[in-house]
Amino acid sequence: MADPSINDVCEALALAVQTGAGLRALGYIDDQVSPPQAQVYTLPFDPRLTTGGSPSRSVQMGVRVFVRRTNMRTAQLELRNYMEQSGDLSIKAAIEDDTNWSETVHYAEVTEIGQPFEYETANEIYWAVDFSVDVVW
């Protein structure tokens, strides 16, 4: 079986978030947002660590979680549920639970949970937060 590609791992990360935290997730950044939703993207990484497949490959990825911004308070409270260290809505717990992954990974670890911010796309304003993730496969 061939090693999974970066695209495969992005899709697998989206599925892990969807399975573990129960929100819609895409393996890419899309123009359209259907909150609550997560979208996966790549972060800067060392390409020397993604070649060869042996003993492992490593890439840094981002997961951006969007919620509707009906008002600031409600949006912040909703985002904080996803920012928890554990629990049913925890993005960190979903990502770090290897039973949520469709591809074999050695490990996936959330290394940073960012500061919430406003995000505008398609003339809509959302409240969002980014998660940095190291994935090794």
Q: Main sheet, how many strands, which sense, barrel? A: 6 strands, mixed
In the residues, how many domains can be counted? 1
**Into which percentage range does the β-strand content fall?**
25-35%
- Global outline: globular
Question: How many DSSP-defined strands?
Answer: 6
Structural class: alpha+beta
Distance separating the two termini: 13 Å
Bin the helical content.
Answer: 10-25%
Mean pLDDT: 90
The CATH architecture assignment turns out to be: 2-Layer Sandwich
**Radius of gyration, in angstroms, nearest whole number:** 15 Å
Encode the helix/strand succession as letters: HEEEHHEEE
Poorly predicted parts: none
DSSP summary: helix tally: 3
CATH domain class name: Alpha Beta
Please name the CATH topology: STM4215-like
